[in-house]
Every structure is written in structure tokens, then in C-alpha cells.
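Section 3.1: Structural characterization of target chains.
Under the original work plan, the team committed to producing a structural model for every single-chain target entering the pipeline before any wet-lab resources were allocated. The record below documents one such target. The sequence was received from the expression subgroup and is listed exactly as submitted; it comprises 394 residues.
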Amino acid sequence: MGAALAMAPFYDGFSDSGPSFRLHFGPLPSTWLEVVLGAALVAGLVGGWGRLPWRNPYTFPALLLLAGAAIGSYFTPHQREALGLLKAYFVEPMLAGVVIAWLAGERGRVRILLAGLALGALIAAVTNGAAVTQAILRHEDVATLPPVRFYRTANAVALYLVPLCAFALSLALYSDDRRERRLAWFVLAVMAGAVVLSLSRGGLGALVLVAVVVALFHPRRWLVAIPLLLGVVLAAALPPIRRRVLVELDLSNPLNTITLREALWRSALNLLRAKPFTGGGLSGFRESVAPYADPAYRENEIYPHNLFLNFWTETTLLGLVAIVWALVQAARTAVSGLGRDSWVRSLSIGLLGALVAIVVHGQVDVPYFKNDLALEFWALLGIQLGAVRAPKRE
């Protein structure tokens, strides 16, 4: 399963003429990620049969979300594509979460799982960070459209890395193993640097709040939080980032994403008022929203770019209820681990930070509906769940 987590970013391909990670088995599309994850699921389901934690705090929210996604795959103009998303965004990641929760009962296995996530994150971070760095050295305008290599958009870099930054920062501060702390600091530095170079305003905002939330659990919280925040402030002073932020303060600027998002959200709400239960259907937002589009809406987005609107339009009203339920259960499970030993506590604080990243960045973007993000979501829930359900250690 660690290898499958390392393959999480390998589901699409490079942004230019580089290699693609998409495959075809006859008429059936697939990805490198899906091939490795499928093998890991078979091994995990067979090896852990009878011991897998099917009944857990996420069982009923997951089943409700799966039901909403199944209904959404019916009420959609693209049923074939929707069935593929149902498998890739819901069935496979949820099964992976169950297998990971079983494996995470042992610290050594959790290290392997986290190492897999870290390896994939480092590959994505270094690749995309190098693309921006090269563009800056060539004196290109990276503020308007930051270049990427491993993803299609710069925001996708931050969406994947910031929740992992929460776990890395928590382990760096609270792990009782010196080697873990040192490695976590290294991984955090690389990932945070890539988030800064992504110039993602939502990602930078989420990263700041993640640093604050994770640092608040430290007995010397302000001595920890101030250097972290100072680093973010200094990064925000860089000319490309400063220009990106200033654009958001100028509502007349055509590159201002706030006004673009408002028109998109109004269009999505118009659709939901007309179809409050079914929404646009899984993979159907672009076509379904057209008759209800706000006059100011000039984009061609495939999602509403808001966590709650995304789930409502894609997975029906059931899906919206389910994701809120799952997030509440995740927060409760994380809080239950705060009083445990330092290992479980560090993972629990990391999960709280990851939830902050998902919810905060999710107000302006799509923090779940991608292959890597769906797998990351259920993997992080499974890792902390397995650790907190393990027998208490002195």
C-alpha cells in the first residue's frame, strides 16, 4: 500500500508534451496509479480479511457518500464518465482507507505508509518547484499563470501538498523519535517551498492556518508559531506572490478570481435551486449549469470550486450531508487521540491540521474530486484511525 500512496500523483501526466500516466486496457481507461492501487487493494483485502475495520466512525458517512455518488452517476449527462469517477473517486479510495486503517495499527507500517505519501509528494513538489524556478530565472511572468509540470494547474500542487504539510509539521514538532522529526522537517521544507512557488493564494492561506493550528498544541506555541508565520510572510513578500495577492484586492482587474468565483457560485446555486436533490450529477456540472448560468459567468468550469457546492452538485444532497458528517467524525476521532501517547497524538494533530487545510482551501477550490486528492483524504483518515484504535501504549 505504501507504493500505491507514492503513486498518488501519477494519474494524469505532465502539463506539456511529456509522458502521460494514462493507460487503456482494451476500451477501459486506467492510470498507473489505478494499476498499483488495484494490486495493493487485492493484497490488502485478502491479507486482512476478517480483521479489516469495516465498522468504524466513517462507515455510515462513507456509505451515504457512496450512495449519493451512485445516484449522481445516474442523473448526469455523462453516465459512462461518471461510472469511472465513481470507481476512482469513491470506491477505490474508500477501500484503501479501510485497508490502511488495518495496517496502521502498527507504527512500523504507518512509517511505510507515510513514507509512500512523502515520496510521491516530494516528486510532485520538486518537479513543479523546478518548473517555477526555471521560469523565474528566464524572467518569465509567473504571477499571471504559474507554470507546472506534474499537474495541469498550480492550484493542484497546493491542494495535494498542504494537508501533507500538516502531518509533516505535526510529526516534526511532536514525534518522540528524533529521526522522524528530522525527516519530517526536511519533507516539510520541500513541500512548503513548493506550495509557496505554486503561487496558489488559497494554498498559501491554508498553509498559514495549518501552521497556526498545529503550533497551538505546543507548550511554547508562540515561539513555534511566530517563526513559521514569519517565514510565510517573507515568502508572501516575493514579487510574484505579492502581485498575485494584490490582484485579489482590485475588483476591477479581469484576473481577479473573487469576482469570477462569485459568478460561478451564483450559477451553481441557481442550478441547485432548480434541482435541489440531484444537482448536476457526477461529471455533469459543466452541461447542467449552462441553462442556469449567471449573466456574469464567462468560464467553462467542471466544478463549482467550493467544497460544499462541489459535493452537492456532484453527489446530490446525500453527498453533501455525507461529507459534512465525515468531516465531523474525522474531527471527533482526531480529538479522541489527543490524550494518547506522543505518536498517536502527533498523528491526531496532523489530521486536525489536514482538515483545516481541506476546509479552508475548499472554500475556493476543489479539494477532493481528483484521483490523488480522494486517495489522500481517505488515506489520512485511515492512518490516524488505525493508530488511535491500536492498543494503548505506555
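The longest strand covers residues 22-25.
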